[in-house]
Design a protein that fits this description.
There is one protein chain. By secondary structure, the chain is α+β, with helices and mostly antiparallel strands. It has one domain. Helix content is 52%, strand content 12%. The chain contains three helices and two strands. The chain has a two-stranded antiparallel ribbon. Strand 1 and strand 2 form a beta hairpin. The protein is globular, with a radius of gyration of 10 Å. It comes from Nonomuraea longispora.
Length: 48
């Protein structure tokens, strides 16, 4: 999740680079509360 948060790369690209399923990474990111902002493409913390 740190890579998604710090790089701002799309989850699908990071998953491909890591050799894991993009849907699994997406679920993990969502579960930890890290999400991508739609406006600027950077990762942000989800509001509680």
């Amino acid at each position: 999740m740190r890579i998604v948060k710090e790089t701002g790369k799309p989850v699908a690209h990071i998953a491909r680079d890591l050799g894991i399923n993009k849907y699994a990474l997406h679920d993990w990111v969502r579960w930890t509360g890290t999400r991508r902002s739609r406006s600027d493409g950077t990762a942000t913390e989800a509001a509680s």
